[in-house]
């Protein structure tokens, strides 16, 4: 059974169709990327998953069931607007937030210490939150998200505003949690992180799914869309190209969706071109997203 299933989910606010017939599933142990431009409907999906708002239509199962009291204790949510109390210490914040999750003080303080150690902030446990840097505050907030050892983590923009070294810390924590069997949902704009971390992604626009699948499969399905070729003499006229960047004795060929690398290679051979190199290039996930975004006209081609 998957950990999360959304089937044909709709949600409108007044005149806006925020989520418009979305389907996806997330398996246990996956890191799942929820992606899309501002206003795409990501937060609305997260709010429905957490039962803050109800869908107008469709089915949502989280940890195999509709959301219930029991679900609350099994989910760790890092909201985009962070909420710690400035005038009390890191440890007091963590104990208080753990008490809201029904964790006893002894377990909470043991968990807090372990988590602060994992993010390298043991030396700050007595510091007031207002005396921490923005990045440190975010790490503490992430620790509070994990304090009750949730099975499912929902992290809204966990890398926003972090410097590269703190981004590494957050990445390390996410990977450790997955290794520990947790399922992680990540809403983020940071494509490098998505490519490195996510097993599966859903990209939405105007509340509709525009790209969905396992990252490996998505990359494979786009792999043959570009070829790097080195040749001698002139590059002959080729059928099936969307575009070509031709340099001295080398070219990058961008294929139309209906053409294949084999077809291009055959044309080159038939036209007796001397080929020194022929590489089918793998697009980065970011390049794939740009292609999809261009097709969706979010950005100028
Ligand atoms: P994202 O998180 O991808 O930026 P949202 O889910 O916040 O997108 O928003 C999706 C759409 O729904 C947007 O057009 C947004 O303006 C609209 N929207 C979100 N929340 C509300 C609300 N409470 N009332 C009215 N419209 C809303």
Structure notes:
The chain folds into two domains: 4-219, P-loop containing nucleotide triphosphate hydrolases (Rossmann fold, 3-Layer(aba) Sandwich), CATH 3.40.50; 224-281. With 301 residues, the protein is of the alpha/beta class. The chain starts with a strand and ends in a 6-residue tail after the last helix. The strands form three sheets. A six-stranded mixed β-sheet has the order 5-6-7-3-8-9, sandwiched between helices. A four-stranded antiparallel β-sheet has the order 11-12-10-13, with helices on one face. α3 (90-100) crosses α4. It is 34% helix and 28% strand. The relative contact order is 0.13. The chain has ten helices and 13 strands. The radius of gyration is 24 Å and the shape is elongated. β6 (152-156), α6 and β7 (183-187) form a beta-alpha-beta unit. It has helices spanning 42-49, 69-72, 90-100, 105-118, 134-146, 164-179, 191-197, 215-223, 261-270, 285-295, and strands spanning 4-13, 16-26, 31-35, 57-62, 75-78, 152-156, 183-187, 200-205, 208-214, 226-231, 241-247, 250-255, 275-280. The structure holds adenosine-5'-diphosphate. Adenosine-5'-diphosphate binds at residues 13-14, 16, 18, 36, 38-44.
